[in-house]
């Protein structure tokens, strides 16, 4: 159960062109009390159509599907259903797919080979507005940043001034509502900034954000 869903189970749309895969993934998800698969789709286009009708909290998309790929479907869902979270579930440990998934506004990238270990955590992280990246994806992000730094194209600072402002308030223990009231912006904007901060820094929770804020001098220990 999550605050975003009002305490009810997270409603999930599962899209994969292999019925056997869908059945196995559904068993993993439906076995959790806070997760509920409410619809399935056999390709990307059907996933978009069903999502518009069912309005799930979260859509889990395979990458390689007929009609629309998972990445194409993710882009369309991000455009038409911006409040719906998206996860990519794939057999491909592929940096290009991974970066395309991030560009398509996916909240996470989960390998099918690790689904029984990672998928449940990824669903919950997505609904908290936090990114979920498997270790190889984190390595790819770091390598990309270092390549940009060597080429002189990396940003001078990792976080924007607004993100640093929000990070400081998060690390001081303020809730999203309190931060929104302080900065006169919406809680949804705060949550989006918080997810971006976690992704940029490769961190996973408030405790790690606090440690980072202490190390960088944003707050005192």
UniProtKB/TrEMBL annotation:
Residue positions where 4-aspartylphosphate is found in the record: 62
SMART domains cross-referenced by the UniProt entry: HTH_LUXR (SM00421), REC (SM00448)
Leader sequence segment: none
Keywords: DNA-binding, Phosphoprotein, Transcription, Transcription regulation
Pfam families: GerE, Response_reg
GO BP terms in the entry: phosphorelay signal transduction system; regulation of DNA-templated transcription
GO molecular function per UniProt: DNA binding
Domain HTH luxR-type: 152-217
Record Gene3D superfamilies: 3.40.50.2300
Superkingdom, taxonomy of origin: Bacteria
PROSITE patterns attached to this UniProt entry: HTH_LUXR_1, HTH_LUXR_2, RESPONSE_REGULATORY
Residue span(s) of domain Response regulatory: 11-127
Protein name: DNA-binding NarL/FixJ family response regulator
Taxonomic placement: Bacteria, Bacillati, Actinomycetota, Actinomycetes, Streptosporangiales
